[in-house]
Amino acid sequence: xxxxxxxxxxxxxxxxxxxxxxxxxxxxxxxxxxxxxxxxxxxxxxxxxxxxxxxxxxxxxxxxxxxxxxxxxxxxxxxxxxxxxxxxxxxxxxxxxxxxxxxxxxxxxxxxxx
Length: 114
Known about the structure:
Elements: H1 2-26, H2 30-55, H3 60-87, H4 100-106
Helix pairs in contact: 1-2, 2-3
């Protein structure tokens, strides 16, 4: 039964990773690709690591550190990529209505930084 839960968790993670790859192909611009890839890969990686923890309970402390590392680095790296893409003026999709970062820069805001 424990192996079945681990297998289902790994399969669910693989589905999320597949959806991330599909999102990278289907999204219209770099910013939505970054968002789709980051959210889905974060959840997919976490589910796969949880599945591994069911298969190898003795690895759980190390796998917990892996999950924490993924939770810390994926959002930070996607934020850095998005800011860099915005800074070099990567075009947004035509359907994009608002560029909140450009609005903040023109009003002299700090971009959310304190």
